Amino acid sequence: MITFKEALNRVLEHPLDLGNELVPLMQSNGRYLAEPIYADRDFPPFNRVTKDGIAINFDGAIGTGEKLQVEGVASAGMKQLSLVDDKNCIEVMTGAVLPKNTDTVIMYEHLTIDEGFAVINKEVTKGQNVHYKGSDESQGTQVLSKGTLITPSEIGVMASVGKPKVLVKKVPKVCSIATGNELVDIHVSPEPHQIRKSNSVTMLSSLSNLGITGSSLHLLDDKESIEKGLSSALKENDVLLLSGGVSKGKFDFIPEVMEYLGVEKIFHRVAQRPGKPFWFGVHKESKTVIFSFPGNPVSTYANYHLYFLPWLYKSWDIKTEERSAKLMVDLEIRPPLTRFIQVKSKWNTNCLEVTPIVENGSGDLTSLSRADGFICLEPREEVYKTGELVRFVNIR
Ligand SMILES: Nc1nc2c(c(=O)[nH]1)N[C@H]1C(S)=C(S)[C@@H](COP(=O)(O)OP(=O)(O)OC[C@H]3O[C@@H](n4cnc5c(N)ncnc54)[C@H](O)[C@@H]3O)O[C@H]1N2
Ligand code: MOO
């Protein structure tokens, strides 16, 4: 049996080149950028008025003690106006182009305007209330880098620089496969010996967080239907995510049928808990990568985060950072298994603190809804002490 570290390295040795695709900007939310984005003009593109009020020529107008005659009104969307007399002013609205021959804006709250003349009631600083051309970004600057996760903020930036379509990393075609005679659909009233499918649904909804619309399949515990189902799933998908049928039981046929179908086994069984009977393989002919997770719900979900997600980010060539958190209890993790323990997390003055949740083993389906993530603890002789920083894998 190989270690968790070795298993993960082997998984990461088999990334897929998924390629890129052009998608409409409004469909790019949640995807990863496959091109850098540049400012197509200065931002802001002109000296922009930031308060409703008047624009003046500071040197010409301040200190005269006179009333300033209003020459006109400039609103957002109007072409640039020009102040004719340095001692006068132009009324300006937020978002307007600062008129030529003016350099300073005074907001209405600091003015009295009466019969076409403005009187300033507060001290003025030259240049105030102007958002200068190119002060955010100058034309040609890279504003978003390749590999950035697109959220509504990035969509706004891309709209500003005129990108109606955007090149993103292509998502893989994924099939989430449930195995087992005991499983029935969600809407079915189960017989006492049956249970409703949850793993495949959990994985499908996790995939949807990544912009992946996966398909699903249910295989019964007989070699023929597994063979039939898997052979078409291999042809149609880049990735298969299976749950169940990989341990030592008399009906755990997945590894055997995989190998019969020409899938190369990279490894089976890892020195970890939960998730020990994990089977991983690649089908060279169809270039499909197969993650066959143990069926217990916590094992499936832990392995999805521990192996599939890092594999996907590697395939997308996206760097991810490991997170750490402060352990709030002592834990003894003796060799030989790496342990993944479900925890609740809480921020406390810039530090994420984690406490194991109460759970009832890897078959305890509801425990997942009480946990925020897993901590990863390598086996060792010394006890993990309260206050120690440990690796944290977020599942929220
Ligand atoms: N003799 C041994 N027995 C077992 C071992 C072992 O090493 N030697 N490993 C245990 C461990 S650890 C795990 S984990 C399980 C994994 O077994 P399988 O991958 O073969 O999974 P199944 O037996 O098919 O199912 C296990 C359990 O999970 C439930 N399940 C399966 N699929 C779903 C689903 N889609 N939704 C909800 N629940 C699901 C299933 O009904 C079983 O209760 O093996 C141990 N045994
Ligand atoms: O290692 Mo199995 O995954 O308990 O639960």
Describe this entry's structure for a reader.
It is built from 7 helices and 26 strands. 18% of the residues lie in helices and 30% in strands. The mean pLDDT is 97. The protein is an alpha/beta fold and 396 residues long. The chain has 4 domains: 4-18 and 171-315, 3-Layer(aba) Sandwich (Molybdenum Cofactor Biosythetic Enzyme, Chain A), CATH 3.40.980; 21-43 and 135-169, Molybdopterin biosynthesis moea protein, domain 2 (Alpha-Beta Complex), CATH 3.90.105; 48-131, Molybdopterin biosynthesis moeA protein, domain 3; 323-394, Beta-clip, CATH 2.40.340.10. A hairpin with a 4-residue loop joins strand 20 (279-283) and strand 21. Ligand LQZAQKY5 binds at residues 178-180, 182-183, 195, 197-200, 243-249, 252, 274, 276-277, 294-297, 299, 362-363. Residues 273-276, 294, 296, 299, 362 line the site of molybdate ion. One of its GO terms (cellular component) is cytosol. Pfam families: MoCF_biosynth, MoeA_C, MoeA_N.
Quick recap:
The chain has 396 residues and is an alpha/beta fold. The chain is built from 7 helices and 26 strands. Ligand LQZAQKY5 is lined by residues 178-180, 182-183, 195, 197-200, 243-249, 252, 274, 276-277, 294-297, 299, 362-363.
Give a quick set of tags describing it.
Molybdopterin biosynthesis moeA protein, domain 3, Molybdenum Cofactor Biosythetic Enzyme, Chain A, binds molybdate ion, six-stranded mixed beta sheet, Molybdopterin biosynthesis moea protein, domain 2, single chain, alpha/beta, 18% helix, binds ligand LQZAQKY5
